[in-house]
Amino acid sequence: MVDVVALAAELLAIESPTMGEGKAVDYVSRWLVARGWNVTVQEVTPGRGNVWASRAGGGVTLSTHLDTVPPYVPPRLEHDRLYGRGSCDAKGLVAAMLVAADTLAGQGEDRVDLLFVVGEEKGSDGARAANRLPATSRYLINGEPTESKLAVGCKGSLRAHLRVRGREAHSAYPHLGQSAIEPMVALLPTLKDVAWPTDDRLGPTTVNIGTIRGGTEANVIPGECEVELMFRLVGPVEVVRARLEAWVAGRAEITYASHIPAQFFHTIPGFDTAAVAYTSDIPLLDRWGTPLLFGPGSIHVAHTPDEYIDIGELRAAVDGYSRLVRALLDA
Predict the structure, then answer these.
(1) How do strand 156-165 and strand 224-233 relate by DSSP bridges?
(2) Is 226 helix (H, G, I), strand (E, B) or coil?
(3) 4-154+262-330 in CATH: which number?
(4) Fewest CB within 10 angstroms: 90, 175, 234, 293, which?
């Protein structure tokens, strides 16, 4: 059996931020071809694409993403942890899936597919493209760091932009202009007073003021101010949009960007379960079968300079994915 820690470290050594996944795509596809898999690389944009590997099909697809958030953090092994960008989100999971699927294939189980997509961290263009492939699997096991528990569900997401327009003027004569920043600064603190929806399983809707941009120079009255919000949804997006619009009450322009709905997943007896607050590609891969969400590692360290995965948990994930696949195939 291939050593999953060594394979994960090799993947971590390949820098693959969103829109720059080409080298990781090449490495994974070559690894699979060398082991007898039928491999399709579906171009998403020039130089980057999804990797789909199959044998007989008709069973279970193991899937996660190859892209990472920047900046690149090289791998290092310290004590019982493997550090590096993507160690738990999600190259460690890629390695565990590769080893699990290849081991099952070596044991004669050819009803396992692998799907590794690009672009999950920003817009999910890879998953949207992958859903156009002629998938045949009955189940999809998507990989995200769930602390080796089966997720009963995950929150959705909604991006929204607020824009206030003012009138530029020389800062020495502020009465000739109208600041766009001042009304935005007055508006934002009241966002926490809105009663957003809650769900018994997923918890509360949350909102993050992620970015704020405004003005051009200190000596110019700012003519525009823009804020980007990220909602984590637990129910219908229409409810959140309606409450956002009621809160804004015409004080800013609202435009909506990407939206992924909240999801609930299939579970299997014998595995610990938990709800997760983040969003996955699962809603965009509905042609790939009944979804499950499972993976080693903690989302609490993902996207941080000290991102890591526990080596023991990574090794156990190979068996975890194998047991999930066999349970689903036997169902």
Answers:
(1) antiparallel
(2) strand
(3) 3.40.630.10
(4) 175
